[in-house]
Amino acid sequence: MLLVARASMTGMLVFDYEDEYPQAVAELAGWLRDGKIVAREHVVHGGVADFPETLLMLFDGVNTGKLVLALDGS
After folding, report:
1. Which of 34, 58, 54, 35 minimizes the C-alpha distance to 44?
2. Is the pTM of this model over 0.70?
3. pLDDT tens digit string along 29-74?
4. Which backbone phi and psi does 8 adopt, to 5 degrees?
5. Residue 66 · residue 40 · CB < 8 Å
6. How far is CA 71 from the centre of its chain?
7. Where are the domains positioned within the chain?
8. Distance (Å, rounded) from C-alpha 40 to C-alpha 21?
9. Distance between CA atoms of 40 and 35, rounded to whole angstroms?
């Protein structure tokens, strides 16, 4: 369809804006602190043996937000 419409497509990579990372991190941290954005994490507490089951949660849609396996201190 691009060819037929004589259109062009230009991509971008986040690395193109590497010089702006510090400003972006500061701004995002402020928004997080002010509650303007919310970080969602689904934390599963367990051990290394729980990794396969926890990983499969990604494909089942069980988790909300970032899926984290918090290793118990044993």
Report:
1. 54
2. no
3. 999 999 999 989 999 999 999 999 999 999 998 888 899 999 987 5
4. -130, 155
5. yes
6. 20
7. 14-71
8. 22
9. 12
